[in-house]
């Protein structure tokens, strides 16, 4: 009987812990991250959770020219964590035009592994997974729809702080 209670508690703990996600659980994102190669360099800089939000800034540079800027906000809303972001060109026009930001909700969280999912899926990004295979490496896997087909890409960042 004791074993059964432990098994039930272990099964319910992750679900109940995830039922009310906390921004502090995403603090592994905090800091300056840089990845890419000589052709394309991508950086993300994340602030610490404060005031119910985390903010991130991303910059992509290819051949010495800015390709994309991105502003990201993860906010606590109604017992869930919501990620919103927009992409900007060098002249500060947005890739999304006059539309609102892309929006995803935290769907899974396991230590330093977090997945945000669009529900319903947007016309472009369907999910983003941030995970750390080790202390100084951050991977980002982006799933998206390209020309009506499932696609995506992955980025690998090294900690710069």
Compact summary:
This protein is mostly beta strands and 161 residues long. It has one helix spanning 2-19, and strands at residues 31-36, 40-46, 53-62, 65-77, 80-88, 102-109, 113-117, 125-134, 137-146, 149-159.
Overall description:
The protein has 161 residues and is mainly beta. Helix content is 11%, strand content 55%. The protein has 1 helix and 10 strands, in the order αββββββββββ. Strands 1-2-3-4-5-6-7-8-9-10 form a 10-stranded antiparallel beta barrel. Strand 6 (102-109) and strand 7 (113-117) form a beta hairpin. The longest helix is centred in the first third of the chain and has 18 residues, at 2-19. The model is unreliable at 1-17 (pLDDT under 50).
Tell me the series of helices and strands, N- to C-terminal: HEEEEEEEEEE
* β-strand number: 10
Percent strand equals over 45%
- CATH class reads Mainly Beta
Number of helices: 1
CATH architecture group name: Beta Barrel
What structural class do you assign from the helix and strand content? mainly beta
According to CATH, the fold-level topology is Lipocalin
Shape: globular
